[in-house]
Design goal:
With about 60 residues, the protein is an all-alpha fold. It is built from 3 helices and no strands.
């Protein structure tokens, strides 16, 4: 189980690094827009991301 968790973390880091590597200007603009979001909007994005991840895990298993 630990190996799977470490692999998932490594894959997440690779995927998150793609946009800043391929298009740093777009990443910067997106990050600047994200800093202007309210706390509630940021929480909603986080919740949506967690739900999508749980759904993907359920489908995968």
């Amino acid at each position: 189980m630990g190996d799977l968790l470490l692999g998932a973390l490594a894959l997440m880091l690779v995927i998150e690094g793609l946009l800043p590597f391929l298009s740093p200007g777009s990443w910067r603009m997106m990050f600047e827009r994200a800093t202007r979001l309210s706390d509630g909007q940021i929480r909603f994005v986080g919740l949506s991301s967690m739900v999508a991840g749980l759904v993907l895990l359920a489908v995968w298993r």
